[in-house]
């Protein structure tokens, strides 16, 4: 990568590590560094050592910053690479030989897929896509919430009501769970009943296991339907129950290493100097905890996949849990060379504050997705039949509404840093103008419309094209295309899909300016026409590559 190559050149010339960035304004160069300011170097002396490099047409010092202007052939050669590599452009093998396990989505059995799990699912999938694109062996793991005292509550309700399991829906299970809590408020002894039933489940009680298995099958069928709607497929579905027979060994190891001790019958973990609050490893009645199951999960992943990175895409409310978990792994000495990451996501809100529907306090994800599809259908209907958005019909229009609606929901989330709270404002989400999924899908469709109208004109870059004779908007597009690979790498390393969104939105804006100002099909010369078609193809390809990494479809026609 050019950025890394320039950083190496600077370090070789100065002995100082440099951070090279892309200026917001290309009049300040294609790359820039503040190494002279930071390291108190003479900027002109640094320039004198670097100007012999064949990379640069010129190097300037502006306000202490060293600004690098690449030779024009790099931009034209990059354009040719996009035309050649197509959907593979931007990918690399920098992750070759490395493995990452990504824990994401993780809905709870016996509850409908809630809005709270949307963020983990789509952010996790985007990060999965990014790492895979850079050559990592990438393993997705859906750690289902299918074990714990909550199942004791469900088993109690289903056992006492004698419900026919095969007739139940996931909504029925949710209602039973809510009913239990209301009843337990009046009769707290029911909580002891629930704990007793979960203990029976852990001990292999036949009836308890039969009810639990039915709840799981009902839920998985529902989850698969939502995943299909989202276009998400996760490699492994290993719920907490999978680790049931693996927890005792972990518990024994914790005892052997004096990392847990008894407190009022329960086994707890305390941290040196109270750097973190203590936690329960095993309850006084012998029931396991979520924390012990997570330790067993990590042990399994380390042994089975030998990862370099284990990343969890989980909400901010679990921050303390992961600090305790990672610290315990450190105390156990299991994975000294493994990087553990908690990718924190914020809350989901409506623009009026709390997200709510007429259906109650729980926001079901399907409600939001169907609402998005409905609003996308309205957008299509509002456009005249001759417009690029309004020229679909029947089944094609329904599929397009799904692509726009689902893509809009995903983009609204992914375009903002994962740590921020996300606000649902339908007017901004389902919009062909501004920073939105439909805007980018429309920009891509526009590139495909131009190419289709070219009647099969070959897409190539003529050797007669002189970079210096191009218009400013053409030069700008060429320069922006050059930075896609760097953005991919940066977004991957920082677990930040929003960087992809920022980049392709900026690129789409520049393309729309180009489309409105520069004749493409009616260019003055054959060479100009071919070059502008190649530029159009490249922009469309990069927008599509970016959207694909985000898990968003790119319809050829809108």
Strand order of the largest sheet: 7-6-5-11-12
Taking the alpha carbons of the first and last residues, their distance comes to 35 Å
Taken as a percent bin, the fraction of beta residues is: 5-15%
State the fourth-level CATH superfamily of the domain at 101-350: HUPs
Could you name the ranges where pLDDT drops below 50 across 5 or more consecutive residues?
356-360
Summarize the amount of helix as a percent range: 40-55%
- What is the residue-averaged pLDDT? 91
CATH class of the domain at 101-350: Alpha Beta
> Could you tell me the number of beta strands?
14
Sheet/helix structural class: alpha/beta
| Total helical segments | 20
Shape: globular
Q: Compute the gyration radius: what is it?
A: 28 Å
Main sheet overview:
5 strands, parallel
* The CATH topology of the domain at 101-350: Rossmann fold
> Would you identify the CATH architecture of the domain at 101-350?
3-Layer(aba) Sandwich
Features:
558 residues, alpha/beta, Rossmann fold, 5-stranded parallel β-sheet, 4-stranded antiparallel β-sheet, 14 strands, globular
Outline the structure in words:
By secondary structure, this protein is of the alpha/beta class. Among the domains are: 2-70, Gyrase A, domain 2, CATH 3.30.1360.70; 101-350, 3-Layer(aba) Sandwich (Rossmann fold). 52% of the residues lie in helices and 11% in strands. The chain contains 20 helices and 14 strands. It has a 5-stranded parallel β-sheet with strand order 7-6-5-11-12, sandwiched between helices. Helix 6 packs across helix 7 (170-186). The longest helix is centred in the middle third of the chain and has 25 residues, at 206-230. The radius of gyration is 28 Å and the shape is globular. The model is unreliable at 356-360 (pLDDT under 50).
């Amino acid at each position: 990568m050019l950025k890394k190559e320039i950083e190496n050149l600077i370090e070789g010339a100065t002995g100082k590590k440099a951070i090279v960035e892309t200026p917001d304004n290309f009049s300040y160069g294609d790359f820039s560094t503040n190494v002279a300011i930071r390291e108190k170097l003479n900027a002109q002396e640094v320039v004198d050592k670097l100007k012999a490099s064949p990379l640069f047409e010129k190097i300037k010092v502006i306000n202490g910053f060293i600004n690098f202007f690449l030779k024009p052939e790099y931009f034209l050669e990059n354009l040719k690479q996009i035309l050649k590599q197509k959907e593979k452009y931007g990918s690399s093998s920098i992750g070759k030989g490395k493995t990452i396990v990504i824990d994401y989505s993780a809905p709870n059995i016996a509850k409908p897929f809630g809005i709270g799990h949307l963020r983990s699912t789509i952010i996790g999938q985007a990060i999965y896509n990014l790492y895979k694109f850079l050559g990592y062996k990438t393993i997705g793991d859906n750690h289902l919430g299918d074990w714990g005292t909550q199942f004791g509550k469900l088993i109690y309700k289903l056992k006492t009501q004698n419900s026919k399991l095969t007739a139940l829906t996931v909504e029925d299970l949710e209602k039973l769970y809510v009913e239990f809590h209301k009843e337990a408020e009046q009769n707290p002894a029911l909580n002891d009943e629930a704990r007793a039933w979960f203990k029976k489940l852990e001990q292999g009680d036949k009836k308890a296991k039969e009810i639990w298995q039915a709840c799981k099958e009902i839920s998985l069928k529902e989850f698969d339907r939502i995943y299909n709607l989202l276009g998400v497929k996760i490699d492994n579905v290993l719920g907490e129950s999978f680790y049931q027979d693996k927890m005792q060994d972990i518990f024994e190891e914790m005892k052997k290493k004096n990392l847990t001790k008894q407190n009022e019958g329960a086994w707890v973990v305390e941290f040196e100097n109270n750097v973190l609050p203590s936690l329960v490893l095993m309850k006084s009645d012998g029931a396991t905890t979520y924390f012990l199951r997570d330790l067993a999960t990590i042990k399994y992943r380390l042994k089975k996949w030998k990862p370099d990175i284990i990343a969890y895409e989980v909400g901010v409310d679990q921050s303390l849990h992961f600090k305790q978990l990672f610290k315990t792994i450190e105390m156990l000495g299991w994975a000294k060379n493994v990087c553990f990451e908690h990718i924190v996501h914020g809350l989901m809100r409506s623009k009026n504050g709390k997200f709510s529907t007429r259906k109650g306090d729980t926001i079901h994800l399907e409600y939001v997705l169907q609402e998005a599809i409905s609003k996308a259908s309205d957008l299509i209907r509002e456009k005249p039949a001759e417009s690029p958005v309004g020229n679909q019909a029947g089944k094609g229009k329904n599929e397009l509404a799904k692509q726009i609606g689902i893509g809009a929901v995903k983009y609204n989330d992914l375009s903002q840093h994962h740590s921020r709270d996300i606000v649902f404002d339908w007017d901004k989400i389902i919009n062909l103008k501004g920073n939105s999924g439909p805007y980018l899908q429309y920009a891509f469709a526009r590139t495909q419309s131009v190419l289709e109208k070219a009647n099969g004109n070959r897409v190539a870059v003529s050797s007669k094209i002189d970079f210096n004779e191009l218009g400013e908007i053409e030069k700008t597009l060429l320069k922006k295309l050059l930075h896609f690979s760097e953005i991919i790498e940066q977004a991957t390393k920082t677990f930040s899909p929003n960087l992809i969104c920022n980049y392709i939105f900026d690129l789409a804006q520049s393309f729309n300016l180009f489309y409105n100002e520069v004749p493409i099909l009616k260019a003055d010369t054959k060479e100009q026409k071919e070059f502008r078609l190649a530029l159009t193809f490249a922009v469309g390809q990069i927008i599509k590559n970016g959207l694909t990494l985000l898990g968003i479809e790119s319809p050829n026609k809108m």
